[in-house]
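Fig. S4 source data, part A: sequence.
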Amino acid sequence: MLLLTVCGGVMQLESPGAQVDVVLTLAEMRDELSGTLTYCSDLFSHETALRMVKHLQVGRHRLGAT
């Protein structure tokens, strides 16, 4: 599961906002990989962030992660 967080945008969720352009945080919990992608909406559109997440999911799948 990946949670999108937008700094300076509509979807800001309990986050102090991005201190840099893009932050990817991943954690393994109970043999499951989850993460948060935080990005600055002044630089990236929501569609671009979704595309980033899809690329990460493809990479994870190719590496054989669950």
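Fig. S4 source data, part B ends here. Residues 2-62 form one domain.
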